[in-house]
Design brief:
Length: about 110
């Protein structure tokens, strides 16, 4: 009977949700995150090589996105929690450094 109850609860929980669409959206967020990181690296490298200086405000937007993304993932999903926490902390430190740099503290 316990198995039946679990299955019924699962059906009710997922009622009206398109699991495939949720998976596609999740994968899209991951791809977008990595693409943002690559683009930021390209821009930053170009700025350094051409002597244009850098724009820490722009880069802090990218890093705060990843901080929140991995922090939320660590909070909500038990699986791979340690890796998500570590990743969120690293992105968070980078975000703080960029914000401080933008305001001239660093």
């Amino acid at each position: 009977m316990e198995k039946e109850k679990i299955l019924e609860n699962s059906r009710l929980e997922n009622k009206g949700k398109d699991i495939y669409a949720l998976e596609v959206e999740s994968t899209g967020v991951k791809i977008a995150s990595v693409t943002m990181l690559i683009m930021a690296l390209v821009y930053y490298t170009y700025e350094i090589m051409t002597g244009k200086g850098s724009n820490p405000a722009f880069y802090s937007l990218i890093t705060v996105y990843n901080t929140v993304l991995y922090g939320y993932k660590a909070w909500k999903i038990e699986e791979k929690r340690k890796l998500s926490i570590f990743t969120a902390v690293v992105w968070g430190i980078l975000t703080v450094m960029l914000v401080l740099s933008y305001f001239g503290v660093l």
